[in-house]
Amino acid sequence: MSNLAFSREYLDRRSFIELDARQRAKSLLDAGTGRELAGPFDRIESPWLAIQGVTPQADDGCIVIRGTIDSRQTVVIAFNGAFQGGGIGEVSGAKLTAALDLACRDNENGKPTSAVLLLETGGVRLQEANLGLAAVSEIISSIIALRRYAPVISVIAGPVGCFGGMSLAAGVSSYIVMTPEGRLGLNGPEVIEEESGVEEFDASDRSLIWSIFGGQQRHDQGLADVLVDDDADQIATTIRDLIVKGVPAIHRSEQVDLYRSRIAALDTSTQWDPSLVHSLASSHLVRHNFSEGGGAAEADDK
Amino acid sequence: MSKFTGIRGRVWFKALTRQETPMPGDPPSVLVADALIGDDNARFLCVVPDPDSRFPCARHGEVGLEQAYTLAARIREVMKADNEKPAEKSKKRPIIAIVDVKSQAYGRREEIAGIHLAAAAAADAYATARFAGHPVITLIVGQAISGGFLTHGYQANRLLAFSDSGVLIHAMHKEPAARITRRTVAQLESLAKTVTPLSYDVRDYAKLGLLYKLLHVSNPEAPSTEEISLVRNAVIEAIADARKGPTDLRGRYESEDAQTARKASRLIRARLEEQWNQ
Fold first, then answer.
1. Hey, which of A168, A198, A237, B246 has its CA 20 to 30 A from A15?
2. A136 touching B, CB under 8 A?
3. Contact A153, A170 (CB under 8 A)
4. Which domains does chain A have, with CATH numbers?
């Protein structure tokens, strides 16, 4: 993968990141099977933006497409990072929740249906504040309901990444797929700098940002399941393989004791240089005098 | 920021459980206790400030890594215990989140260590408990902000909140929200008068249809015995109501207030349902 940048495959590949949300969703589905639901011609817009002088969009930046992957029923929900930073508003949030709930109902009725979330989002859309936050809580709940029956796969390709409340949605997913251009975290760099100061986080330091939030780092840490190139065919193959694999025996966000013991083992006495954090479990950040739970901290979740 | 942040959580945890020490092995910032409420032995959970926390960005009542994983572990402990009970005693115990959280922790260490997963693990535990039939009740006594609230409390099937100006339920504190949306605080406040979801007033929040009940307590930092029993009774009622209803969150958009406040949510849900099998 590291040689890709200089190879012929790089020149021949079809970029996923360069596709818009609708094209991204369709690129994952079996050819000709994609059917968009509650699309732009239904014109269900956010009722809160125009009154604030913000132009709404006919699909509210969230695209829902049903189809098949490897002939299996799948719903793909894609966020458009170019509209309000992919922020979750009342409509886009309810759209995602409703799609997950309908997939869940199909599973309960014996019709297996998986979900793929293409996340390009900074989290809650601040113009819809409390309804956005409520929507995120409902999204999290509906992912947890659905993943009992079928995998819910989150893809974070970039360039926006996945931040804010939606990082919890990624966190409760069955699988997370990232490209090196994708970023995942609860608080973005600007928010941390704003809230805790530039000494805590210099939001202009790009290498700091990528060494913490980037797909490569998240994968090395075991916080993302698959690292893929920015290649639509490779991403489609990866998603298909994960759907075939099915629901994992245990979800990452259920492994409380493992991750709690890792946190307990960390040395927080000084600020962390991210170059030390290649893998949290074996990093220099583990307390030297730490014994209790230390064994668990060495364990790998995979 | 409210001067009450972190005081109210402890006051109400103590008022409802008569306890205020963390469980063995837990950080001082997470209070967990089992206490009788009505006929139930419920598990109460609360995040409080710890000025000596070893995570510097989680000292003032923020929900950080340790807090989130402790909540998750203590919720899963109850689920496991109830699961192992014989079927005839299978009435699931209530889980009560007392919420007074300033926000999530905004720190470099937190992001490196994957605070999004910690937050997800806590939300997962609350939601999984709810789906398993535990009544999950949230009592908002102070602040309930952003990722802090998503982590601790927002997965409940019944939300209760105090109705005074010390209560703040929001996606972001006023000042940063104004800066990020390129407005002054005055402009934001004026917009919030007509745009209900922007409002910082809990009485406006109540109009969104998300709350089960608003509770009036005249002095939430030093409640009277009568006020404590009023709140206790409201929680008991919420537990009974949760046991009668569905285990998902549909009550939030099917409520009477949601019929008007969340018209667009309801419309998009209806449209997707119509088109799902076409």
1. A168
2. yes
3. no
4. 7-253 (3.90.226.10), 255-302 (no CATH)
